[in-house]
Amino acid sequence: MNQELLLDYINQNDGVTQEYPLLRHLEESHPEFFAPLGIEPSLFKRHFYLFHQLYKLNNRLLEKRLRLIISPLEIRLCSIAEAGQSIAETDALAEFYLDRKNLELSASEVAEMQKKFWEKYLAIDKKAVAIRTLGLTKYEELDRKLVKRQYSKLAQSYHPDKGGDEAEFQKIKEAYETLMILFK
Predict the structure, then answer these.
(1) Tens digit of pLDDT for each residue in 155-184?
(2) pLDDT tens profile 133-155
(3) What DSSP string runs through 148-166?
(4) Are 67 and 61 in contact (CB under 8 A)?
(5) What's the CA gap between 154 and 95, in Å, rounded?
(6) What is the reported pLDDT for 91?
(7) What angle do CA 94, 182, 81 make, to 5 degrees?
(8) CA 74/CA 24 separation, integer angstroms
(9) Which residue stretches of the chain are H helix?
(10) 7 vs 10: CA distance, rounded Å
């Protein structure tokens, strides 16, 4: 029933919507959708439950060679070929949202997840600058080991205790820390 409501809404919107309009539609037109969550569930619980249902729907659609692309900014129905991803592909977000016990995360656990998200988001925003600072632009693929090796090499040259420039060393250190957040 819940998944059919979602699929109907997505189809009525030419196969594309976003989380917020879908959430509003469900709250206004189908308040029973969130009934399993109790009286006045938190935004996190409504979000989680919606995504839980979307990922369950996605699993059903895979049998029909269809797929949902699921994110807060875009929920899109497409063929598997259009999505460019294999049926067997593991999706860490799908695993998270399909695990109902995550619906019961405490406020502090949700806050910690949000903190980690923003740390990674800001690190991604600063990633290009950090890559240039560490002289890693020639590499197509970066990994933790490569970043550490390059940082060590530059740190030996620029560390103030070894006669290097303190301001330049600080930039190198910040670039290293920025990239390491992405490899946690």
Answers:
(1) 999 988 888 889 999 999 999 998 888 776
(2) 999 999 888 889 999 999 999 99
(3) HHHHHHHHHHH-GGGT--H
(4) yes
(5) 39
(6) 73
(7) 40
(8) 15
(9) 2-12, 19-29, 43-62, 80-83, 92-98, 107-133, 144-158, 166-182
(10) 5
CA atoms lying within 13 Å on the CB side of residue 151: 20
Angle between helices 19-29 and 2-12 (to 10 degrees): 120
Contact 56, 75 (CB under 8 A): no
Q: Give the pTM.
A: 0.67
Collect contacts of 110-116 with beta carbons under 8 A, ≥24 apart: 110/44, 116/184
Class of domain 110-182: mainly alpha
Q: Where are the domains of the chain?
A: 2-105, 110-182
Predicted confidence (pLDDT) per residue in 61-115, tens digit: 989 999 999 988 899 999 887 766 544 444 778 899 999 999 999 999 999 988 9
